[in-house]
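Practice problem. Given the sequence and the SMILES for flavin-adenine dinucleotide, write out the predicted structure.
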Amino acid sequence: MARTVTLPASLDEAVAALSAMPAAVPVAGGTDLMASVNSGLLRPAGLIGLGRVNELRGWQYQDGHALLGACLTHARMGRPDFAALIPGLAAAARAAGPPQVRNAGTLGGNIVTAAPTGDALPVLAALEATVLLLGPEGAREVPVSHLLTGMDPLRPGELLTHVRVPLLHAPQTFLKATGRTGPGRATASVCVVLDPARRGVRCAVGAVAPMPLRPLEAEAWVASLVDWDGERKLDPEACTAFGEYVAEACIPAPAPDDGSAESGTLSAAVVHLRRTVAALARRALGRALA
Ligand SMILES: Cc1cc2nc3c(=O)[nH]c(=O)nc-3n(C[C@H](O)[C@H](O)[C@H](O)COP(=O)(O)OP(=O)(O)OC[C@H]3O[C@@H](n4cnc5c(N)ncnc54)[C@H](O)[C@@H]3O)c2cc1C
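Answer key:
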């Protein structure tokens, strides 16, 4: 078990504690971290609890964006006032595990764990959110996608302090499929975000790859069909075609066995996953445009 537990009362104290003990790990809700400790996968030299750092809770408005504290819990993000602000993230938060997990688990922990099944991740990818990081060498801001792909990872001693999300004032949907009834990890998830100011439809697919995937061509194609100055309605056939476009883009056919240009036969698992993603994307788009 950890040899020391530090409970800083401010962000500066938390960064100082982490700098003083680089082998220690920050803990927010502990729903991911303690599972690793309990299973023996992780033996941290120390724990730095973030629960008393008020700067990491709540959110504020800044230049058309919301600046979300890393320690916002899923339960808090699922409430109606938050849903009015960022409906996609609220829907993902409501779907993230059973109530005990939603009460403790945080946005920052979801991002830093970066599990493929992290429900907040496709939403943040579709929203093109950025994360604010603070460490011994100062503050920096990186796109969440760079953090998730490992292009720009968290550096030693750095804390994720906030997530900057653009406020789009338009419908956003998040849907997830699980392999069981009741709360469960996603086998696939889809977020669709409308961006009327840029006449854009943004979509991200979660759980089918190590990080959320953006089907950019499908997004551009469907955005060109939407009547942005009118009712913003689409034929059901166009929604179905969008779903299939997204699924094929995010779940490619396996490479052929013989090295020829022809793609190999799809396994039953791939066919099933494509159908699931296509249905989620079709419904998510239909609901966003409804
Ligand atoms: C039973 C169960 C069901 C679950 N179901 C779901 C689900 O359906 N969907 C889903 O998305 N997740 C699910 N989870 C996973 C988990 O609840 C989430 O990923 C949660 O958001 C993690 O947040 P946390 O605050 O508990 O993170 P912690 O466990 O406290 O930390 C996780 C990691 O992030 C680091 N960290 C935390 N905060 C910071 C910070 N501010 N700066 C730097 N590093 C930080 C920690 O050091 C650790 O490495 C489930 C977990 C359990 C146990």
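Check your answer against the key. The first helix runs from residue 11 to 20.
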